[in-house]
Amino acid sequence: IHNITIDEAFMQGERYMELWNYVAKHYPHIVWTWVGDPDQFLPVKDTYDRGDYADNGFVKMLCKHNRLVLDKVHRCPDPQHLARVRAARDGKAVDLSLYPATEHTWLHICLSHDTRKRLITECCKRWCGEGEADNFQQTPRNPHSQDVNIQAGMPLICCRTNKKLDIYNGERYVYEVADNENVIVSRYLNDDFEQKIIQREEFTIYFLLAFALTAHSIQGQTLTERYTIHDWTHPRADHRFRYVTLGRTKESGHVQIAITS
Is the pLDDT assigned to residue 14 strictly greater than 90? Predict the structure, then answer.
């Protein structure tokens, strides 16, 4: 190995820093490249409490004190929307009247899991109506799970990696069908259709409905469908949350903000 590239580098916690430090000491010939945005979320439950890692001495040493700042945002070609995204990043107020919540969407971004669960319940009722659905119960093995009724076609997100099942955290799937023993989920990957078979009793351990997602889970993604931001005024909603959620889209018309959530 001659080169190592770390993506979403500033979400790496201190335990990963210790790992990279070990690798760097034993393999000093490796050239390191760190890619990320230090203004986005900090690592979750990190023990490092001296700010983000952008100006960390170890990171600077690892990259030989080289830093390239890209000031052109290809995700967001709309200059007015980009200006508001940068204002959110800088902790400035955003004119919420420009993003009114005027319609129901099938994708919601929020801060808290309580909000996420409430929105998923609402979307399930709206999708299923009075039709039949497969019922799944909350499991203590996944604290983010909930009781849900699911029909074919509903979007899923894998929330826990299992290499034996060949499923990985963050992957998106679609619910197909279930019987008393198994659940079939599917997705298109590079134009190839693939299906996974999951034991029914383990389904809610590994999958959540993707009608609503936390902002942490969508960092780094580009959202191409219309979505609604919730928890904008939540006590824990800071400039990082607003920057990440507002900046996921290429079109300002794709995002609306529910200020009453």
Answer: no
- The DSSP result for the chain, as a single string, is --EEEETTGGG--HHHHHHHHHHHHH-TTPEEEE---TTSPPPTT-S--SS-STT-HHHHHHTTT--------TT---HHHHHHHHHHHTT----GGGSB--S--S-EEES-HHHHHHHHHHHHHHHHTTS--EEE---TT-TT---EEE-TT-EEEE-S-BTTTTB-TT-EEEEEEE-SSEEEEEEEETTEEEEEEEEGGGHHHHEEESSEEEHHHHTT--B-S-EEE--TT-TT--HHHHHHHHTTBS-GGGEEE-TT-
Q: What's the pTM value of the predicted model, to 2 decimals?
A: 0.90
